[in-house]
Amino acid sequence: MLKRKRALASVAVIAVIAGMGAPAWADTLQDALALAYRTNPSLLAQRASQRSLDESIVQARAGLRPSVDVTASANYAHDFSDAAAGNRNSDGGGVSVGLSQTLWSGGRIGHGIGAAEANILAGRENLRDIEQSVLASVIQAYADVIRDVEILRIRQSNLGVLQRQLEESSARFEVGEITRTDVAQSEARLAQSEADLANAQAQLSVSRAAYAAVVGQAPADLEPMPVLPGLPSDFDSALDVALIENPGIRAAGYSLRAAEANVAAAKAEYLPSARLTASYGGATSDLGRPGDIADNTRFQAGASISVPLFTGGLNRSRVAQALERANIAQINVEGERRSTLQAVSSAYAQAISARSTLQAGQEAVRAATVAAEGVRQEAQVGLRTTLDVLNQELELRGAEVTLASARRNEYVAQANLLAAMGRLEGPDLDVSLVAYDPADNYNRVRNRGALPWDGVIEAIDRIAAPPIVPANDAEDAPIDARLKSEITRTAPGS
Predict the structure, then answer these.
(1) 49-62+104-279+317-490: CATH, from 1.20.1600.10, 3.90.1150.10, 1.10.10.10, 2.30.42.10
(2) Does 396 have pLDDT greater than 80?
(3) Res 463: pLDDT
(4) Looking at 157-229, which runs of residues are DSSP E strands?
(5) Nearest-CA neighbor of 109 among 155, 57, 153?
(6) pTM of the model
(7) Could you state, in order of their start, the residue ranges of all structural domains in the chain?
(8) Rounded to whole angstroms, how far apart are CA atoms 332 and 335?
(9) What number of H helices and E strands is found in the chain?
């Protein structure tokens, strides 16, 4: 516990020190993304969760293989039935080895394997979703730090200008050119500027701490944000890509496939099953003579077919339950499609809005800079008041802050748009990044414990097994045409 508190305190100290002054080296967005890709706890935990899920295929395929068990028994009996002969004691025991191999389960094993594989594929999509969420957080934290550094620079510059303005106002007041009111106005604006500077410093410290939390180290002097690759040219193309590649939609589709396999497995409970059995062992009627076990050994082999006749409604209930779960999975597919449509539409609209704000902000800063310089010169010849100068400086700084925020908002909206499309994975952002492939662990564990006849048993098990019948083609169905048309018609830039 003490070590944990010290670690948390160290992170806090790093964030505070970073807020006070950055080191001399520079960080790039690619560096931040690569570090988070390797060390972010949320991402590492999801990868471990996926490796855990991979074990389900080993468990499902274990039904193809024989089970072997060793049984040892001992017993004691005391007979009270013959009082004339006296009480008689007897004991005995035995040891046996048993083997059982399923030949056909009506498809339960085969459909169980199919369900496990579909769940694993859904887990991979969930991993993609977490990865994109983490990388989007890195991009946002990176953009926030750059924005807040720029705002801090603006506040510092404004403070210097207002300090000079107060000195100038005081000098002019001394020679009687302006009144005490003008000096007070300069003092008030300077005090407000000091408060704005303190707020900017605090906000930068908050952003640096958020960056350290998601990336794993405090930011240094961050380089400008690079252009994000793969941005769509229009809303239609963004939506079309998202409906195919969005991890939420794909995960929902795989979950539906798993649910349908579970329905087929539940229906297979009505079918008979066939097994091969064999046993070898011996017994003794007197535990005092264990050698009798070797003298009384025998080998037995056989085959059995089990046909369920009555289960008290258990099988019917399981089928009904599996059908409802498949219904839920089918509904979730449509829910994910609608959520994706909303996410793409929202991010695209925010990107367009931020771009317009950015263009307007650039023009506002240009015009406000010219106006501020003109007002200062006019004030020197008595054509403008001190309040005019102060107001124009305030307008200029406000335009600069708006411009810095617009740059950040556009960049974050673009990242969110790529995430909604399913194209914000590590290799998408940095081709040199070594991607984590969840299939490596799956391929390594899938055939653990495999036997040469696994494929034969699986093929036999699928003979006459209930087929997987999709509830409908929801996984491949296009989104409602009217809904898409309406969203497209009202999308910004359409």
Answers:
(1) 1.20.1600.10
(2) yes
(3) 76
(4) 221-222
(5) 57
(6) 0.82
(7) 49-62+104-279+317-490
(8) 5
(9) 14, 6
